[in-house]
Amino acid sequence: MDKIKMQTPLVEMDGDEMTRVIWQWIKKDLLEPYIDLNTEYYDLGLVHRDETDDQVTIDSAEATKKYGVAVKCATITPNKARIDEYHLKKMYKSPNGTIRAALDGTVFRAPILVKGIEPYVRTWKKPITLARHAYGDVYKNVEIKVPGAGKAELVFTGADGQEVRQTIFDFKGSGVIQGMHNTDESIESFARACFQYALDRKEDLWFSTKDTISKIYDAQFKDIFQNLYDTEYREKFEANGIEYFYTLIDDAVARVMKSEGGFVWACKNYDGDVMSDMMASSFGSLAMMTSILVSPSGVYEYEAAHGTVQRHYYKYLKGEATSTNSVATIFAWTGALRKRGELDGNERLQKFADALDEAVIETIESGKMTGDLALITTLPEVTKLGTEEFILAVRDTLDQKWK
Ligand code: NAP
Ligand code: MG
């Protein structure tokens, strides 16, 4: 059979440690035998980031803006220990932070569901994608420890010198105060990314804040979402048979628990931080969670939600057997290839991505899986496979389907 051709390059961002090893195996065993892979390669491994003073990360983000779709391997975010380990020139920023800032993107986390790895919430049948606003609020706050009695005020001085002033509290004794902000521009980018993503998935979009209590701050979020929906997205949503709705965060939490899943849940920064960790663990495993960065201009970057699996890498380096789960990294590749196929009208590429996803799921459902899943599965007969063994088992399943 002819290999699949790709018209436009996919931006490929290589990474670190165990996921870098897995990356090569996925390409060699699952992609290159079937596709004439057309990628523009950027090595975001820490060694090369250091060699280029991190310019390679910026270049890869620019290439993503140019071509529209990227796939990224997990990368090390340097800390003190990594500076010593890799003899780094300096403490580079997190590549994900740099790329997110360049793309002005929102991160969507979506679980991969398979039979035998059951969500802890019994009613969940379909994935719930969590969208977290990644700017402002408590993450960019200013705090003061109040030493004793006194008046706390909120003051805004306009560029024209006009002042707005409000009393926060008349302190009789010691306490604390906090100032937070967000910008209309950032909220609107977030809203746009959420509407765009829900349209892509053809799933309902939920958005929740606490606007009954925060009548100006949270109400601003609600209004910006509603206004954008009414002016740009309502018709597109209706044409696709999906809906947008707003509800209070407490109501949303209660409804999520009783739902079947199958929607996108947009959350403010703090709510999204807390809820994404809850969702990741309640769907079963971090190794089965994908992460997609979507910019408001419609640029996409796909990756696994987990890190470089350092502990397994050190075992691998010592020549010991490893059983690292490659599913989220495979799904990052198929997500990116499918999106590339959609944008280029390349149906064979899209079909291949679907077939590879199905092969992964069928392989696990037949009882062949890595150690992390073998520990939590409800399937009765399970074969625990090594890291590359699992990838090769997926290859066998794929060969039955893709002829
Ligand atoms: P991690 O790589 O996510 O791994 C933490 C633990 O979770 C592992 O030790 C392993 O548990 C389990 N795990 C995660 N992914 C797995 C997989 N695919 N298969 C099997 N088990 C898996 O987090 P970390 O060890 O805290 O961080 C390592 C490096 O990753 C750090 O340098 C960090 O900066 C980086 N990081 C990068 C990203 C990114 O690029 N998006 C995200 C997070 C972290 P057991 O050891 O119990 O088997
Ligand atoms: Mg968190």
Descriptive notes:
With 403 residues, this protein is an alpha/beta fold. Helix content is 44%, strand content 21%. The strands form 4 sheets. It has a 10-stranded mixed sheet with strand order 2-1-3-14-13-4-5-12-10-11, with helices on both faces. It has a two-stranded antiparallel sheet with strand order 6-9. It has a two-stranded antiparallel ribbon with strand order 7-8. Helix 1 packs across helix 10 (310-317) and helix 12 (347-365) crosses helix 14 (387-401). The chain is globular and about 75 Å long. It starts with 9 loop residues before the first strand and ends with a helix. The mean pLDDT is 95. NADP nicotinamide-adenine-dinucleotide phosphate binds at residues 74-77, 96, 286-287, 303, 306-311, 324-325, 372.
How can the largest sheet be summarized? 10 strands, mixed
Strand order of the largest sheet: 2-1-3-14-13-4-5-12-10-11
Rg over alpha carbons: 23 Å
Structural class: alpha/beta
Low-confidence stretches: none
Number of strands: 16
Q: What are the distinct ligands in this entry?
A: NADP nicotinamide-adenine-dinucleotide phosphate, magnesium ion
- Along the chain, the helix and strand elements come as EHEHHEHHEEEEEEHEHEHEHEEHHHEHEH
Which strand-content bin applies to the residues?
A: 15-25%
**Number of H/I helices:** 14
Average residue pLDDT:
95
End-to-end distance: 7 Å
Helix amount, in percent? 40-55%
Protein topology:
Elements: E1 10-14, H1 17-31, E2 39-43, H2 46-51, H3 55-67, E3 69-72, H4 80-86, H5 95-103, E4 106-111, E5 128-132, E6 142-146, E7 150-157, E8 163-171, E9 175-179, H6 184-201, E10 204-209, H7 217-239, E11 244-248, H8 249-258, E12 263-267, H9 269-282, E13 289-294, E14 300-304, H10 310-317, H11 327-344, H12 347-365, E15 368-369, H13 371-374, E16 383-384, H14 387-401
Parallel strand pairs: 1-2, 1-3, 3-14, 5-12, 10-11, 10-12, 15-16
Antiparallel strand pairs: 4-5, 4-13, 6-9, 7-8, 13-14
Helix pairs in contact: 1-10, 1-14, 3-5, 6-7, 11-12, 12-14
